[in-house]
Amino acid sequence: xxxxxxxxxxxxxxxxxxxxxxxxxxxxxxxxxxxxxxxxxxxxxxxxxxxxxxxxxxxxxxxxxxxxxxxxxxxxxxxxxxxxxxxxxxxxxxxxxxxxxxxxxxxxxxxxxxxxxxxxxxxxxxxxxxxxxxxxxxxxxxxxxxxxxxxxxxxxxxxxxxxxxxxxxxxxxxxxxxxxxxxxxxxxxxxxxxxxxxxxxxxxxxxxxxxxxxxxxxxxxxxxxxxxxxxxxxxxxxxxxxxxxxxxxxxxxxxxxxxxxxxxxxxxxxxxxxxxxxxxxxxxxxxxxxxxxxxxxxxxxxxxxxxxxxxxxxxxxxxxxxxxxxxxxxxxxxxxxxxxxxxxxxxxxxxxxxxxxxxxxxxxxxxx
Length: 368
Description:
The chain is α/β, with parallel strands linked by helices. It folds into two domains: 5-175 and 348-367, Glycogen Phosphorylase B (Rossmann fold, 3-Layer(aba) Sandwich); 193-344, Glycogen Phosphorylase B (Rossmann fold, 3-Layer(aba) Sandwich), CATH 3.40.50.2000. It is built from 14 helices and 13 strands. The protein has helices at residues 19-28, 68-86, 99-108, 121-128, 130-142, 151-160, 206-213, 231-240, 255-261, 280-287, 300-304, 316-327, 330-344, 349-367; strands at residues 5-13, 35-41, 54-56, 90-94, 114-117, 145-148, 169-171, 193-197, 221-225, 247-250, 267-270, 292-295, 308-311. The strands form two sheets. It has a seven-stranded parallel β-sheet with strand order 3-2-1-4-5-6-7, with helices on both faces. A six-stranded parallel β-sheet has the order 10-9-8-11-12-13, with helices on both faces. Helix 3 packs parallel to helix 5 (130-142) and helix 7 packs across helix 12 (316-327). The radius of gyration is 21 Å and the shape is globular. The two termini are 16 Å apart.
């Protein structure tokens, strides 16, 4: 008997340009007992992902707004064709609110069970945009299970759906491929080399990191790695604060290249303002021996453990004090280095894949 087929995907280019696509590659290459087919938008074709089966979507991406409904309808027609050809046993709809997840929910039409997966950006969008909220609610209603990575995310999805689907929420903690050995080692100098990596948008609040740099006692250095719609404003902020010698901007790096860079840094700054699904890049930094200074948001303390220190979200002065504290305390730096490595070991992608596979088998058993 052939293994059951899971159809999944994200209406984003097939590139390692965000945590969601990387997470899918990690998980679905390890989903024991299942075949998988991943649908995505065309990318540059250079990504060495772990997905064994892929299909390219033809629709042109449309954000929330006047063109989103027509875009979702076009995707639904495409998905109907994919279902006819491949006849999947189960659908995993990534993101509660993205166009493809909405198309999965509509095309499945109770014929194929849908397990939806919350990623964070979708939940944030639903708190700010009525169109996104409507899509989230429709997807949750069509799902037999809704996977969330943390209790905080579960509570937020429950709030957005009016508490009507609490029995469908299933927590599957996220993880990373475990590093064989840390690359970063604690240093003794009073000037820290710090990194901020990820999307440059308002919720990631990179501007808090830059503002904090202007408030520290010593001239520490910050490397900002990534891209996004805040880049130009952040570069202007650096110029206005006369921090050109202390801040370096670098383009997005593929994961393996970013991991290699971790050896260059003493600390990661993780400055999310409102909601964070899990903080995968911060856990990756910890796995390489880099402690994290992070916003004290619900859920992040559970994820990052004692391998870092927290400050009130958006409080640049408090973050600056934290940076100076770490810079002047070699014993603290060594302790944070050790606890960061230990904490990262709790987050293994193999556990994520095993729990998602188990949940999928349960859903198929219920359908039979």
